[in-house]
């Protein structure tokens, strides 16, 4: 799936002239904090980098695509640096955490956004496709959490947010490997939270579960299949896609002290999809 043509993608699905108040940054809420955001060059990762910086954090924009990642870091300015990161490669993570500490003095936040989605089913998924999806979506999350805990436990602690999906709760007929990976991310998150709590580490770890989000990756899937967003959103109570900014607002809350008692939890932001709010007699 070619997403390069979406480099200058502008989300257009949100039917309002301005984001709702909940998406307005809280100035100073993350002052003094340092975070790494994977997949920071586009989509939810890009929106998260901007949101954390707007709330006072200094951000390491991590992405395998150097052009996209560097562009985001430049847009943010002095409070951001870029590091090229293939999340599926364990040895790359040490460089990422070192960059955060060397550039800004600490590591307090990790947001694992990097992921891929490939259309496949139980019958046609190849071993290569299976391994590629799990290497990025699951191994990458595991490596990130492991690297972050190693640094955070020796500092003042921190907060980790892993991007799962509503696919972590329910199946999709043609996203076999992706669904499996997001279920694994949900379980992995709980294990990290439980481990850190048992060890007395002041590190919280939560997962975020969006439904369909207006991003370049999702738009590429629509285009490849000749689908419209309404085919995905009709089962929701709120019948539109989420914006990446709405997901970033949830993430910013979860890495802030306002969520200080939340760990090992699933935060669903799905427009009512899993509630069944869009199905019934009319």
Cα separation of the termini:
38 Å
Structural class: alpha/beta
In the CATH hierarchy, what is the class?
A: Alpha Beta
What is the strand tally?
9
Helix and strand run = EHEHEHEHEHEEHHEHE
Q: CATH topology, what is it called?
A: Rossmann fold
Work out the count of structural domains.
Answer: 1
The CATH superfamily title? NAD(P)-binding Rossmann-like Domain
- Major β-sheet, in short? 7 strands, parallel
| CATH architectural group | 3-Layer(aba) Sandwich
How would you state the average pLDDT, rounded?
88
Mind sketching the topology for me?
Layout: E1 34-38, H1 43-54, E2 58-63, H2 66-76, E3 80-84, H3 92-104, E4 109-112, H4 127-152, E5 158-163, H5 176-199, E6 203-210, E7 213-214, H6 216-225, H7 230-233, E8 242-243, H8 244-255, E9 266-269
Parallel strand pairs: 1-2, 1-4, 2-3, 4-5, 5-6, 6-9, 7-8
Helix pairs in contact: 1-2, 1-8, 4-5
Feature tags:
single chain, 282 residues, alpha/beta, Rossmann fold, two-stranded parallel sheet, 8 helices, 9 strands
Explain this structure to me?
The model is unreliable at 1-19 and 278-282 (pLDDT under 50). The longest helix has 26 residues, at 127-152. The chain is of the alpha/beta class and 282 residues long. The radius of gyration is 18 Å and the shape is globular. The chain has a single domain, classed as 3-Layer(aba) Sandwich (Rossmann fold), CATH 3.40.50. It is 40% helix and 15% strand. The chain has a 7-stranded parallel beta sheet with strand order 3-2-1-4-5-6-9, sandwiched between helices. The protein has 8 helices and 9 strands. It has helices spanning 43-54, 66-76, 92-104, 127-152, 176-199, 216-225, 230-233, 244-255; strands at 34-38, 58-63, 80-84, 109-112, 158-163, 203-210, 213-214, 242-243, 266-269. Strand 5 (158-163), helix 5 and strand 6 form a beta-alpha-beta unit. Helix 1 (43-54) runs parallel beside helix 2, helix 1 crosses helix 8 and helix 4 (127-152) runs parallel beside helix 5.
């Amino acid at each position: 799936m070619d997403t390069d043509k979406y480099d200058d993608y502008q989300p257009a699905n949100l039917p309002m002239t301005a984001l709702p108040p909940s998406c307005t940054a809280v100035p100073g809420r993350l002052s003094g904090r340092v975070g790494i955001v994977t997949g920071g060059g586009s989509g939810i990762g890009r929106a998260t980098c901007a949101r954390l910086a707007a709330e006072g954090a200094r951000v390491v924009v991590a992405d395998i695509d150097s052009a996209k990642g560097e562009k985001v870091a430049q847009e943010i300015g002095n409070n951001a640096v870029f590091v090229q990161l293939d999340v599926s490669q364990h040895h790359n993570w040490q460089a990422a955490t070192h960059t955060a500490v060397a550039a800004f003095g600490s590591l307090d936040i990790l947001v694992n956004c990097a992921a891929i989605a490939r259309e496949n089913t139980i019958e046609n998924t190849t071993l290569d496709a299976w391994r590629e999806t799990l290497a990025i979506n699951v191994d990458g999350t595991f490596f990130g959490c492991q690297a972050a805990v190693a640094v955070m436990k020796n500092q003042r602690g921190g907060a980790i947010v892993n991007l799962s999906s509503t696919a972590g709760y329910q199946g999709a007929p043609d996203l076999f490997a992706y669904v499996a990976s997001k279920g694994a991310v949900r379980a992995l998150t709980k294990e990290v939270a439980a481990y850190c709590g048992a060890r007395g580490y002041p590190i919280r770890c939560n997962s975020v579960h969006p439904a369909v989000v207006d991003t370049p990756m999702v738009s590429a899937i629509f285009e490849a299949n000749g689908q419209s967003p309404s085919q995905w959103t009709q089962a929701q109570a709120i019948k539109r896609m989420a914006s990446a900014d709405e997901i970033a607002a949830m993430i910013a809350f979860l890495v802030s002290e306002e969520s200080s008692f939340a760990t090992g939890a699933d935060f669903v932001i799905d427009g009512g999809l899993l509630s069944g709010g869009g199905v019934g007699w009319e």
